[in-house]
Amino acid sequence: MPDAMTDYLQQDMECEGLLECFHGLKALDREVFGVLTDADEALTVDEIAAVVERERSTAYRSIQRLLGAGLIRKEQINYEQGGYCHVYRPAGGSEMAQEMQRLLNDWYAKMGQLIREFEDKYEGTQPESPLER
């Protein structure tokens, strides 16, 4: 992951890189997200764990990070004979894009404020001219 803004601006990015950039997702999170977007139907934790070849608890933690980031949705399936299970599917593309735009706007406003504070703090500092030495 790049360390500085200039590093981000100079690297080639794909749209999937936004998931890591905006939400700090791990490689497994991106893999789980890919499994869900490629699936024809919602999947259970056990089904996801089998596809990514990880323990159920590891897949569940990844799912929790994706839920927290608003990238997937959880649904409850009720069985006729009683009981239920949860299944997961990706959130809508527009919904995810709007959330990333909101995060970007918030970040932009915060950076603008910090730049103004930086300018106010250092506005009076001028490099010494050779004649003043």
Walk me through this protein's architecture:
This protein has 133 residues and is mainly alpha-helical. It has 2 domains: 81 residues, Orthogonal Bundle (Arc Repressor Mutant, subunit A); 31 residues. 57% of the residues lie in helices and 11% in strands. It is built from 6 helices and 2 strands. The chain has a two-stranded antiparallel ribbon. A hairpin with a 5-residue loop joins strand 1 and strand 2. Helix 3 crosses helix 5. The radius of gyration is 22 Å and the shape is elongated. It starts with a helix and ends in an 11-residue tail after the last helix. The mean pLDDT is 84.
Based on the model shown, name its key terms.
133 residues, mainly alpha, Arc Repressor Mutant, subunit A, 2 domains, two-stranded antiparallel ribbon, 6 helices, 57% helix
**Helical fraction:** 55-70%
CATH fold name of the largest domain, please?
A: Arc Repressor Mutant, subunit A
Shape: elongated
CATH class of the largest domain: Mainly Alpha
Measured distance between first and last alpha carbons: 44 Å
Unreliable segments of 5+ consecutive residues: none
Main beta sheet = 2 strands, antiparallel
Q: DSSP strand (E) fraction?
A: 5-15%
The value of Rg in angstroms is: 22 Å
What is the CATH superfamily classification of the largest domain? Winged helix-like DNA-binding domain superfamily/Winged helix DNA-binding domain
CATH architecture assignment of the largest domain: Orthogonal Bundle
SS-based class: mainly alpha
Determine the number of helices (DSSP H or I, runs of at least 4 residues). 6
| Count of individual beta strands | 2
Mean pLDDT: 84
As laid out across the biggest beta sheet, the strand order is 1-2
Q: Any idea how many domains? A: 2
Order of helices and strands: HHHHHEEH
